[in-house]
């Protein structure tokens, strides 16, 4: 070191270290949907995060435990796409969203109250009317599948 930098003047003592304060970054305003606590129930509406800048909502028609005791909710998408998490005020008067081929769709999903990106935003909401009867077959899955399944309903989703 002396050979390389010996020609430079050296300070008599080390300069004091500057006190650095940790930087805390707050999430962008409205980046998270405000969750309503409690067990899933019929009439609940859940915000579903499709990607960072796109949300939709799913209506829960009924809740029941399967033969293994796993609580599942029968859900259906509402006709809503939003760049921010939807609110209870936004879902008022919105009907259901069918698949892109025009068929009505519902699914039994587990984990509505425990899945990242799926947040309950309203309770006790009356079901919107629908011109089509219930689907003949209602598949089962996880609430985490709702993000992927939205592509069957909305053209601008992943």
Descriptive labels:
six-stranded mixed β-sheet; 6 strands; 158 residues; mainly beta; 3 helices; elongated
Describe the protein in words:
- The chain has 158 residues and is mainly beta.
- It has one domain (35-152).
- The protein contains three helices and six strands.
- The protein has helices spanning 2-5, 88-91, 145-149; strands spanning 45-51, 54-65, 71-77, 107-110, 118-122, 140-142.
- Strands 5-1-2-3-4-6 form a six-stranded mixed β-sheet.
- β2 (54-65) and β3 form a beta hairpin.
- The relative contact order is 0.22.
What summary fits the major beta sheet?
Answer: 6 strands, mixed
Ends apart, CA distance between termini: 56 Å
The strand line-up of the biggest sheet is 5-1-2-3-4-6
Gyration radius, in Å: 25 Å
Series of secondary-structure elements, N-terminal to C-terminal: HEEEHEEEH
Number of strands: 6
- Given the structure, what is the number of helices? 3
Shape label: elongated
Measured as a percent range, the helix fraction is under 10%
Structural class of the secondary structure composition? mainly beta
Query: Into how many domains do the coordinates divide?
Result: 1
Mean pLDDT: 88
């Amino acid at each position: 070191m002396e050979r390389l930098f010996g020609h430079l003047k050296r300070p008599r003592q080390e300069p004091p270290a500057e006190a650095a304060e940790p930087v805390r970054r707050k999430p962008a305003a409205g980046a998270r949907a405000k969750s309503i606590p409690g067990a899933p129930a019929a009439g609940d509406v859940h915000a579903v995060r499709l990607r960072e800048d796109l949300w939709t909502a799913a209506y829960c028609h009924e809740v029941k435990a399967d033969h293994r005791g796993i609580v599942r909710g029968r859900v259906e998408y509402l006709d809503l796409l939003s760049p921010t998490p939807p609110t209870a005020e936004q879902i008022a008067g919105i009907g259901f969203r069918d698949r892109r081929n025009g068929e009505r769709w519902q699914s039994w999903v587990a984990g509505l109250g425990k899945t990242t990106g799926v947040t309950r935003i309203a309770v006790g909401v009356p079901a919107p009317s629908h011109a089509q009867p219930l689907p003949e077959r209602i598949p089962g899955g996880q609430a985490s599948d709702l993000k992927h399944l939205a592509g069957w309903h909305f053209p601008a989703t992943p």
